[in-house]
Design a protein that fits this description.
The protein is α/β, with parallel strands linked by helices and 427 residues long. It has 13 helices and twelve strands. The chain is globular and about 60 Å long. 49% of the residues are buried.
Length: 427
Amino acid sequence: MLARGAAISPAGTGAATRRALSWALDSGHILGVNFSENVQPIRPSATLAVAARAGQLRAAGRPVIDLSAGQPDSGTPDYIREAGIEAIRAGKTRYAPAAGIPELRRAIAADLARQYPAAVSPEGIVVSSGAKQSLFNAAFTLFGPRDRVLIPMPYWTSYPYLVRLARAEPIEVASGPNGRVGVPELERAYDPAVRGLILNSPSNPAGTVHRLEELEAIARWASERDVWILSDEIYARICFVADRAPGVLDLDPAVLERVVLINGASKAFAMTGWRIGFTHSSIELARKMAAVQSHITTSAATVSQWAALAAYADAETQDRSVEELRATFARRRARLVADLAEHLPGVEYYEPEGAFYLFFRVDGFFDDEASDSVTLCTRLLERAGVALVPGAAFGDDRYARLSFAASDEDLSNGVRLLAEALVGASA
C-alpha cells in the first residue's frame, strides 16, 4: 500500500506536480507569445522544478523528504564564509575583471598544479558565475549552427540545452554497459559535423567515474577527429574509488589543445549559492570566453570571488574540509546501498563511484496510471512525500535520481517510504 494516502493530499496537487515536472521536460509553448528561435526548445531545469514543487508542498504543511537536491546539505565551511564577510567589510564590492580577480585566478591555477601533473597558467583560467555559466561560455564560444555535440547518456539535464543555446545540435550517445562512454560508442555516433563532446566524471546523475586509460583513449580519439572536449569535473574531489577522480589534466599535454576543463567551488566546498565556477583552457580561448562573459554578467560576484580565494589558497584547510565532506558522503553511500538492498532488493542501479547520487531503475514499477518516470515521481512526491528527479530529465526514462546529500534520518525514512509506495503500487 502507498505510504501516505491520497486523502491527505489537497485536491489537484497531483495535477499541479505533473504540470510542474512536465513543463520542465516537454517541448510545449505558450499560445499567443512569439518567442525567439533561440529559446523555443528551452525548458526550465527539471531538478529545480522538483525542488520548487517540494518546497511548495512543504509550505502547505505537507511532510516532504527531499532527495532531489543537487547540492551538499552542509553549510559553506566557516573559513570561507568569514573570508566573504571580511571582503564586504573591506569594501571589496566593486566590479571585478571579466575573467576574475587576479588573486583567485592565480590561486586556482596553483591549486590545479598542486593536484595534477599539467602546467597551468592563470591566464588560462576564466572565473564565472557557477560552472553552468562556464559550460555556457565554452559551448557558445566553440559551437554554432550546423555543429553537432556528442553527449553521453545519462547526462546532466542542462547539457543539451546549453548546446542548443549555442544553436548547435546535441547528439545523445549510449554509454557502455558499465555506464561509461568509450571510443567505440563515440565512433558510432561520429560524423564530420561533430565538433564537440561533453564529458562528466564523476557523473551526474549516475556517479560513474572514468578510468585514466579511458580518458586517454577518448582524448586521443577526439584529437584525431578535431573534436573539442568539454570536461565537467565539478565532482572530481567527491570520489569513492580514488583520492580524486582522474581528469583531463592527468593526460599528455599533446592531446589537450582542444580541451576545456570545467570545475568550480559549488560541490567540494559546499558553495552552491556563491556561484563560482571556472574554465581552464588555452590562453587564446580563455580570452575569447572572457570577452563573451564581459557582455553577459561582466564577472562573477566580487565578494564570492574573495570568499572562494580562501578555499583555493589554503591547501591544508581545503584538503581537510573536502575530506570531511567526502567521508560523510562515502558513509551515506554505504548506508543507502544497504537500505536499498533491504527494502528494494533486486532494483538495478549504477554503482555510485563519485558525486552524491544514486540513479536507479523504476520502470519495473510503471503501471497504467504511471507509465513513465515523470508520472511515477509525481506519484511518489504526492503520495509518499518523497522527492526524486525523474530519469527523463537525464535522457533515460527508465530511471530516477536519488540524492544522498541528505541527513541519515531522511535517507533511511525516504528509502522506506519509497519501498512502501513502489512495492504497494506494483503489487
